[in-house]
Amino acid sequence: MRLKGKRILISAAANGIGRGSAIACAAEGADVVAVDISAEGLSTLSAEHPAIRTHVLDVRDRSAIDAFARIAGPLDGLFNCAGFVHNGTVFDISEEDWAFSFDLNVTSMYRMIQALLPGMLERADETGGASILNMASMASSIKGFPNRTLYGATKAAVIGLTKGVAADFVRRGIRCNALCPGTVDTPSLRSRIASAPDPVQAEKDFIARQPVGRLATVDDITPLVVYLLSDESKFVTGQAVLVDGGVTI
Ligand code: NAD
């Protein structure tokens, strides 16, 4: 049980990588608080494992986050997973698109960390450490992709946020890392494929960009989530950790 006794909060936990992470962390002994904007998605998650509790939370809502932080109690781990993929070049980005993507992909993480870090610092004083994991992407400051200008800008900002938090709190037992997956088969990827002009070709293109020759599954990603939230990674902080099927070889 690699996360036994740990209390871990995961956002965007109703679907995709967040959901798989909630189940994987519970299976490793954590008490998981799974939050998402989708009550419907959360309703089936708590049935997956008795150690998963769910709570509807919009990570774009500052006052809801602050209210939630007052009842959340001290945490050993926080996985900020929520994010949105904008499709298009710089000409396709409206002011509203820009503001929305930065709000959901980056500002939400600043809000969650600011609200929940005091409890994590308390916990780190008791136990010696606590871990924050922020969802970035290989599409970020690491590598550029066509039609991912806005997405890549937000995920590059996530890496900058991660390094800043890591630097400020490294001596107080807080670690902060960013996870940078390749293309993962999730509901959001399936909707991007379905909305492409030629969905069959779009799926082939997504597969082709991964040298391993397939999409990642959620199960390819969750072992790193468990590792980065566990004490096994206690000497790892401020890192952008890639799990990309060889895209950045
Ligand atoms: P997904 O669409 O399968 O799940 C996203 C979840 O986020 C949904 O349950 C949704 O209800 C929730 N959500 C949306 N807005 C929210 C809000 N305001 N507050 C709380 N929850 C909200 O997505 P996914 O593909 O698993 O992606 C999860 C994260 O991983 C994102 O940050 C994404 O950018 C990142 N990522 C995904 C891939 C990929 O290929 N799927 C690759 C790299 C990084």
Structural class from helices and strands?
alpha/beta
Query: Could you list the spans in which at least 5 consecutive residues all have pLDDT below 50?
Result: none
Number of helices, counting only DSSP H or I runs of 4 residues or more: 8
Percentage of residues in DSSP E strands: 5-15%
Structural Rg: 17 Å
Strand order of the largest sheet: 3-2-1-4-5-6-7
Hetero groups bound? Answer: nicotinamide-adenine-dinucleotide
**N-end to C-end Cα span:** 33 Å
What is the H-and-E element order?
EHEHEHEHEHEHHHE
**What is the approximate shape?**
globular
User: Describe the biggest sheet?
Assistant: 7 strands, parallel
Query: What is the average per-residue confidence, as pLDDT, rounded to a whole number?
Result: 97
**Record field, number of beta strands:** 7
Task: State the share of residues found in helices, binned by percent.
Answer: 40-55%
In words, what does this structure look like?
A 7-stranded parallel sheet has the order 3-2-1-4-5-6-7, sandwiched between helices. 46% of the residues lie in helices and 15% in strands. By secondary structure, it is α/β, with parallel strands linked by helices. The structure holds nicotinamide-adenine-dinucleotide (NAD).
